[in-house]
Design goal:
It is a single chain. The protein is an alpha+beta fold. Helices cover 22% and strands 40% of the residues. The protein has a single domain, classed as Alpha-D-Glucose-1,6-Bisphosphate, Chain A, domain 4 (2-Layer Sandwich), CATH 3.30.530. Strands 1-7-6-5-4-3-2 form a seven-stranded antiparallel β-sheet. Strand 6 and strand 7 form a beta hairpin. The protein starts with 10 loop residues before the first strand and ends with a helix.
């Protein structure tokens, strides 16, 4: 069992508790088609290769135009974690990429799913504004959608 990626001090975290085991939740990470069923909201997922070294390409609309970002999968631990680098395409690139980590932790009979956007401390003086922007812009829409797909309907 791996140790996963270290989450830095400056990060955005959103989480949800899903009433299903990590094995079931992870099924929604195993293909592009499955992951876009919940992650392709608000931003577009263009490429998502769920494997170590796989490519992740996404875009978001900002000020009426599309901005692309993405990177490579750097941690891939089935049923536990996927982490990838995140860098804007020029001319909007950061000095260094940030990271996304999606982590699954078994709790009771369910799974806590956490999404972290982290690595902002690597940006130096610009870190505060970047962190504040993401804190204000992120919600749990994606995680609610994932839960609605995974949890059995009563």
């Amino acid at each position: 069992m791996g140790t996963g990626m270290k989450i830095g001090e400056l990060h955005v975290r959103r989480s949800i508790l899903i009433q299903a085991l990590p094995r079931r939740v992870w099924q929604e990470f195993e293909s592009f088609e499955r992951i876009t069923g919940w992650l392709d909201l608000g931003h577009r997922v263009h490429t998502f290769e769920p494997k170590l070294g796989g490519l992740v390409e996404m875009s978001v609309e900002i000020d009426g135009g599309r901005r692309a970002y993405g990177g490579r999968v750097i941690v891939f631990e089935p049923e536990r974690e996927i982490s990838f680098t995140s860098q804007w395409e020029p001319p909007h690139s950061w000095p260094v990429p940030t990271f996304w980590t999606i982590r699954l932790t078994p709790i009771y009979d369910g799974t806590q799913v956490e999404i972290f956007h982290h690595g902002f401390e690597r940006m130096g003086a610009g870190a505060a504004d970047e962190l504040e922007g993401y804190e204000g812009g992120w919600d749990i829409t994606h995680l609610r959608q994932l839960r609605s797909i995974v949890e059995p309907t009563s």
